[in-house]
């Protein structure tokens, strides 16, 4: 796979911040996959499976970070869903951990975020992601602003 | 709050998704999808023009089907049509489809770019953002070429909406990273920097990312961003927790923006401007101070956001590495986290402290936490946390605490996770060497390493200890004593035997004065381990023994007895056999002086950098694990290890694979036949009736009985004892015949090599086979310095092999090669072989002619293969063997062996690419036997399953037996 990593202690890589965002359920079904790097379909499938294998074996006493190839996965579990962000090893763990939580501003957009909402409204989830993350970077962090924008879009025909 | 209902707006989509979810099986799902695809296709092809809503709905369904993992090969045009709709929902679905299913169809790209261009020019911020997000998501070069010049303009235009600026900044970032050459630098860059002052925090958040990226490529051009970033940071950090309203997250003001600003500053050295620097230091101190304040909320989100800033602040402090006060404060703060109840914080503190340990200002402060870190190593539940603790101990180690740290790491090693054992071993080995004051401690440590985790002690580690002991005479006696004691353990690791064998061979004399470790005791201790060791270790021990003969003349008789034993002199392994033979002769013929010179103590190794360090570095680097698995070494480390080759003997021992007979060189032409005196044979290698020429194929019906193996004749009987006419020494040299089966196995997959070797004679073989014919060249090399007389090799066909194989010597009429072979010279004999029928037992147990030599490889397509495979499905046509791998399971080596075996290797036949499939025909004069084979390696179990199918049962079985020995 064409993941190109950097050593542990080197300065920030030239690449993108976020490599991909995955939302999976416990059974490994993907509920959202957003890629910020070029992968072909086989590689994507492989990454999805590996992330699932790495993340689901961990329990609450473990950290929310796990080394993954030359990157790391920052993840958080909400009920049966794992929200995972893959970033460079020297990136700020806690900032992404809270970015995940901030993303669950969905909580208010879909009245109570559940797997079913993600399935039936899959095309809207991408809009939410693009509001908050773009080009592998954090675009907007204000829940109020994102929500306002989403409601405005929803009012459009 | 208007909640979203299930798939609102598109009922058909919701119904379809429900249907899919209700499918009970994969088949049902595929059926439902195919039905839907047919429906959509007909709608798209229909004469009736679809309205925008229907188009949106169908494109969205296609997208859903694609995301389920099915291929979509139509609908792109309809999606592109949606882009030009003036309804947001339709446009959005169009853009989403394009972003997810990017298609480099040039025709479409032009249309897509056109739609994007229109939306960018629309002045409708919603549409502009959609277009910008599409560019950012696709990020292709074509899009870069089309839009890279427009986007900076949109970004800095005074009338652009905030949300458009945010998207434009990150869109530009994406294009710049993908193709920096396409983004023109210019007047806009100065204005981008000033976005750091923008009123809208969202714009600043997006702009910082862009600026950080631009800074890295052109640090000087963007220097002005430092002071702007510092003042922005200062305003955030000093603001009250509610000042920033929308951008306050759980009472923490703008945590992500703060982190981004702190990372931007890490692109530069500390600010030169004193005022700016002062302001920044103030910021950093404020962050450190806030960490000590009581939390404003009990929620983990609050502390995480706060600590995200804190850790980034500490990163910047470490990056500057110039403020001792801040470094020590950072260290103290991290020290508190080391005992925090949140695993995340303990992990991050250990990780961050690791970099602090390398700063001269904070190294001492880090060291004060040693007990906590050791405790973490012992008690943390998450292996990744323990690993960070081990990293930190390694980083904080110096002369003052090395003994404590090394002993704790050794203790940890006993229970450490397998995944990190090798790394810990390397670290211990490096620390022990680096901080050794007295080398006895070093020796103890490495021996402990071997005792505790012998399997993980790589060659580099035990080579290194030998190197150091050899170079330091103050530790040699101690080392000898310690290894001697370590070897007393009833079960000691093979690496211990290697180290022990080498050290005692060099320095055993230093402890020989003690009757408890007298020479005979040393020898019998080592020899008690000998039989359980691998070939490599036994080879090393043989060298130790010859060194003992020099060091302790009183052990000579015992050791010569060992060397002379059949198990050594006739060992199937060429290396062991050769060492035994050479050492035995050396000890017999050489005078004490010569022996002392040859077997002198090894000279000191040139001092070089430790190769272990290089190994650890490689291990830590990306992809280290795989590099290690491959056993690849960089040339430098090879070079280092080159001096430490653990062969204590200076006796040259030719490698077993060396081309001993010079088979590639033209052999001397056969001399004219000499009058053969009957009795006086020096080496009558093949004593028996001469080959009988021209035997026709036997009748078909006799076939089965002929397959019975011939009465086994002892190989000893076939090879006469070399008569001691030209006596090479006082010893009686037994016939060192390798186990016949072993020898055959060696030649199953190759045609050239050494067939036989003793102290007098070496026989090399080179053969070629085509269809049912073969030609074999035998090279007889005289290893002595005297002439062989009446040299007369003959070929014997045991039993009824004659009916299956026809062989004749190539030089009629005498069938003799030169009767005299000069000392050191070589003669050649040619055998022509014809395979008449299939056969199982090779001619003479030592001539490597096995049935597979008459293989003709056959290429065939998968379909043909399976058809033939099915045709050969009678139980007796198949032979199968499941066996353990005797060699490392390397696909390339396996391929080479299978090709050497003679069959064709067929690619893309087996659905599992790990498996090997081959086909070929055994050509004999009487008949042809088609053979199919399949080899399935199971790397996990280290097993193979080999299946052979041929039209003849004995052939299947025999080929299977032969081939199974090879892996």
TrEMBL record, chain A:
Residues 18-156 form the AP complex mu/sigma subunit domain. GO terms for cellular component: AP-2 adaptor complex; presynapse. It comes from Saimiri boliviensis boliviensis (Bolivian squirrel monkey). This is AP complex subunit sigma. The lineage of its organism: Eukaryota, Metazoa, Chordata, Craniata, Vertebrata. GO terms for biological process: clathrin-dependent endocytosis; intracellular protein transport; synaptic vesicle endocytosis. One of its GO terms (molecular function) is clathrin adaptor activity. InterPro entries: AP_complex_ssu, AP_mu_sigma_su, APS2, Clathrin_sm-chain_CS, Longin-like_dom_sf. The keyword Cell division does not apply. The keyword Protein transport applies. It comes from the Eukaryota. Keywords: Cell membrane, Coated pit, Endocytosis, Membrane, Protein transport, Transport.
From TrEMBL, chain B:
A 1,2-diacyl-sn-glycero-3-phospho-(1D-myo-inositol-3,4,5-trisphosphate) binds at residues 11-12, 43, 53, 57-61. Residues 646-665 have a biased composition (Low complexity). It is found in: Cell membrane; Membrane, Coated pit. It comes from Saimiri boliviensis boliviensis. Pfam families: Adaptin_N, Alpha_adaptin_C, Alpha_adaptinC2. Component of the adaptor protein complex 2 (AP-2). Adaptor protein complexes function in protein transport via transport vesicles in different membrane traffic pathways. Adaptor protein complexes are vesicle coat components and appear to be involved in cargo selection and vesicle formation. AP-2 is involved in clathrin-dependent endocytosis in which cargo proteins are incorporated into vesicles surrounded by clathrin (clathrin-coated vesicles, CCVs) which are destined for fusion with the early endosome. This is AP-2 complex subunit alpha. GO terms for cellular component: AP-2 adaptor complex; endolysosome membrane; filopodium tip; glutamatergic synapse; postsynaptic endocytic zone; presynapse. Residues 615-675 are annotated as: Disordered. Transmembrane segments: none annotated. It is a peripheral membrane protein. PANTHER family: ADAPTIN, ALPHA/GAMMA/EPSILON (PTHR22780). The keyword Protein transport applies. Adaptor protein complex 2 (AP-2) is a heterotetramer composed of two large adaptins (alpha-type subunit AP2A1 or AP2A2 and beta-type subunit AP2B1), a medium adaptin (mu-type subunit AP2M1) and a small adaptin (sigma-type subunit AP2S1). Residues 745-866 form the Clathrin adaptor alpha/beta/gamma-adaptin appendage Ig-like subdomain domain. SUPFAM superfamilies: ARM repeat, Clathrin adaptor appendage domain, Subdomain of clathrin and coatomer appendage domain. GO terms for biological process: clathrin-dependent endocytosis; intracellular protein transport; negative regulation of hyaluronan biosynthetic process; synaptic vesicle endocytosis. Belongs to the adaptor complexes large subunit family. One of its GO terms (molecular function) is low-density lipoprotein particle receptor binding. Keywords: Cell membrane, Coated pit, Endocytosis, Membrane, Protein transport, Transport. Gene3D superfamilies: 2.60.40.1230, Leucine-rich Repeat Variant, TATA-Binding Protein.
